[in-house]
Design a protein that fits this description.
This is Lipopolysaccharide export system protein LptC. With 202 residues, the protein is of the alpha+beta class. The chain has two helices and 13 strands. 16% of the residues lie in helices and 50% in strands. The N and C termini lie far apart (86 Å).
Amino acid sequence: MPAASRYSKLVTGLKLTLPLAAIGLLSTMFLFSNPPDPEQAIPYADVDVAQLAREQRLSQPRFAGVLEDGRALTLVADAATPSFASDGMTTNAIVTENVAGRLELADGDILQLEAAHGTIDMAAQVADLRGGVRAQTETGYTVITDAIRMQLAQTGLLSETAVEITGPGLMLSAGAMEVTDQAGGTVVSFTNGVRLLYQAQN
């Protein structure tokens, strides 16, 4: 078979395969553990499927869902691209830039998160936020750390890097932090050299 003919068939095959792969990637972006409740779900942002198929990149993607414990979670990024393994094959992860998150907590509080970078792994049901993470609750508490792992199936946050927390009358630092949902309440645990300065509020 002439080389030109083989090249033509290869190009034709890629034109068919890449858009299908891109659309498959798009479909996985919304596979959180449970579909969102239509009465409570946060609206999805528009997604440019043509851009994803053409560039393997999304602008302003939004990931939204309801966790197993009923908490709504939303992640929004400036851009998202597939994650590639060392052999050049795509993985189940999506790499994001400038991520903002919103998570409902068990006590009715809202946690807002910001990070420079993130990796969302649909198969493992986790989102790794890094590059300087800032989290703030509506009740006035702020957490600053280098990296946080967020569970996508149920409420759960884990930081194994140093954390600093400030809030009403409170300053706390620790080597690690974990947030879980237990018995209907949000539990925050600190380990590895915890230092606390508390001033009673009037």
